[in-house]
Write a structure and sequence with these properties.
The chain has 218 residues and is of the alpha/beta class. The protein contains five helices and eleven strands, in the order H-E-E-E-H-E-E-H-E-H-E-E-H-E-E-E. Bound molecules: adenosine-5'-triphosphate (ATP) and magnesium ion. Adenosine-5'-triphosphate (ATP) binds at residues 35, 37, 42, 44, 62, 64-70.
Amino acid sequence: MGIAATIQEPAEGLIFQGKKSVEPILRTENLWKLYHAGKVEVPALRGVNFEVQPGESVAVMGPSGCGKSSLLYVIGGLAQASRGKVLVDGNDLTELSDAARTKLRRHKIGFVFQRFNLLPTLTAKGNIAIAQFIHGDGFDPHRFDVVTLNEPKILLADEPTGNLDSKNSEIVLQMLRQLNKDLGQTIVMITHNPEATTYFDRVVHMRDGVIVDGVSAD
Ligand SMILES: Nc1ncnc2c1ncn2[C@@H]1O[C@H](COP(=O)(O)OP(=O)(O)OP(=O)(O)O)[C@@H](O)[C@H]1O
Ligand SMILES: [Mg+2]
């Protein structure tokens, strides 16, 4: 084999991998979310530019009312964007019909909420994973609902440890980390708990409807 061939082949492979690795699984472009409370317009998101790479785990922090849940709901297709783009695995949610958006959400996105129980549907594996984590720990599953279908690529969590004591918080955080590291699920989690962020690759801070920075947790 000539030198040219040995150099050329890995070089092509590297270029391909490089392109793939920078393709975000989640991306928002100038994302706005306005709520209408009577005649008052409440801007919850004011031009959010946010990117998450496949397999990344990101914690979102910020004061109450800064738009964290709104961002999660719009990214997850539970709420509609008022302006801007939301790309999920290359699909622009803002250009899809309600039915198509729901379908995409069901296939690609799982939700973890603090108190809600939107879809009490768990995969068998999801049930086992949770049962293993909660076994013998006096954990109350009614306070922590995981909504997943078909092991979604993306897991969105809104303050999953919000009303748990520190021991149960740790169980939940360990479970999320395991889903991220072992199953490769991309995770975006909202939290008010600074300790929770040590379980994540990256921490993003929001304020007044925008992301104000993105620092590495390392
Ligand atoms: N359905 C709604 N109708 C009107 N205003 C809303 C609605 N939902 C949220 N808001 C407003 O939008 C802003 C952002 O709310 P959001 O729930 O996204 O904040 P948050 O960062 O998740 O806060 P918290 O930490 O308290 O959960 C707030 O001013 C809130 O009052
Ligand atoms: Mg919230």
